[in-house]
Amino acid sequence: MVDPLSEVIALLEPGSVLSKGISGAGRWAVRYAKFGQPSFCAVLEGACLLAVDGEEPITLQTGDFVLLPATPGFTMSGFKPTRPKQLDPAAEAGRSAEVRHGRQDGPPDVRLLGGYFVFDSPDAALLVSLLPQLIHVRSEPRLATLVHMVGEESQQQRSGRELVLSRLVELLLIESLRSTTGASASPGLLRGLADARLATAIRQMHARPEETWTVEQLGREAALSRSAFFERFTRAVGMPPMEYLLSWRMALAKSLLRTGKQGIADVAERVGYGSASTFSTAFSRHVGMAPGRYARMG
After folding, report:
1. How far apart are CA 148 and CA 93, in angstroms?
2. Pick from 143, 149, 137, 164: which is nearest to 16 by CA?
3. Coil, strand, or helix at residue 234?
4. Separation of alpha carbons 188 and 197, rounded Å
5. Residue range 82-130, pLDDT digits in tens
6. Would you give the distance in Å from CA 128 to the centre of its chain?
7. 53: Cβ–Cβ under 8 A, 6 or more apart, which residues?
8. Which strand (E) or helix (H) includes residue 174?
9. Cβ neighbourhood burial of 58 (10 Å; 0-12, 13-18, 19+)
């Protein structure tokens, strides 16, 4: 059976992780501008507040894990009101030493392991748009183990370090994503897969992108009327079904073109276009360049 989540993660090619310890005490607050790269945070001890742009503020507590696939602007703070200190996320990402916010002496109120990684795929922005903006997981033992291993490995210079870290962050990504499936998840692929009827249609799109799908046909796969399927899919995934299908087809086409193993006509057929010219027009409109040029750049 096709697993859409695994396919998306494989195309994202996560790797190159960096992590560091963060703590806060007393009256403190920090404001990060939009970063764009994926970042994560695990609460090792204590509690704090997190306010991500466009989302309701949440209280983080011991054992919580947060993943921001594209890291929008956010504020993190203690529970005593104060003006946030503005931080440059690009500059902070380059620092691996532990950071202390607020009162510098005495025990901290909260201890965190924060970090970021990169998606090596040039299609990352397109694929990340299929995921929720904020992923918040509470008390998941498997994630806690992975976070501990990432923190330990990133602080050492052992042989094979980069390979180990890239595999760990891939597992971290998978575990955090599949731990948040459900109706409470933000709109995106995860919420769509949590709906048994929508999941059937999504798996069909991924398994047979070459089919000339229509909303009506996909609705039948989900045992829903055309209008009910369209409304339910759009609400759960955050985009209409044909827009999702187009995004997936283009991501798949870009991956196939980069390998250079298939000609444009073969790629066109693989992703559901009846001719190379029709595919070229759609690809150019969506990507901003002709598939031939994209393949050569790959």
Report:
1. 19
2. 164
3. helix
4. 15
5. 999 998 877 766 666 789 999 999 999 999 988 888 887 776 776 787 7
6. 5
7. 34, 72, 73, 74
8. helix 161-178
9. middle
Q: What confidence category does residue 184 fall into, taking pLDDT thresholds of 50, 70 and 90?
A: low
Residues 6 or more apart in contact with residue 243 via CB below 8 angstroms = none
What secondary structure letter does DSSP report for 22?
Answer: E
User: Maximum CA pair distance of the chain?
Assistant: 69
**Whether this model's pTM surpasses 0.90:** no
CA-to-CA distance for 279 and 246, rounded, in angstroms?
11
User: Can you spell out the DSSP letters for 39-103?
Assistant: EEEEEEEEEEEEEETTS--EEEETT-EEEESS---EEEE-SS--PPEEE-HHHHHT--S-EEEE-
- What is the Cα 116 distance to its own chain's centre? 12
- Which domains are present in the chain? 8-178 (2.60.120.280), 195-297 (1.10.10.60)
Are 17 and 120 in contact by the 8 Å Cβ rule? The answer is no
Reported as type and span, the H/E element at residue 12 is helix 4-12
Do the strands 39-52 and 74-77 form a parallel or antiparallel pair, or are they unpaired?
antiparallel
Q: Are 177 and 96 in contact (CB under 8 A)?
A: no
Token look-up 């897969």 returns 193
What's the pLDDT band for 298 if we cut at 50, 70, 90? low
| DSSP single-letter state for residue 186 | P
Within 8 A by CB and 6+ apart from 110, the residues are: 23, 24, 25, 43, 45, 46, 47, 48, 60, 78
Exposed/middle/buried for 77, CB within 10 Å: 0-12, 13-18, 19+?
Answer: buried
Residue with tokens 């919420």: 191
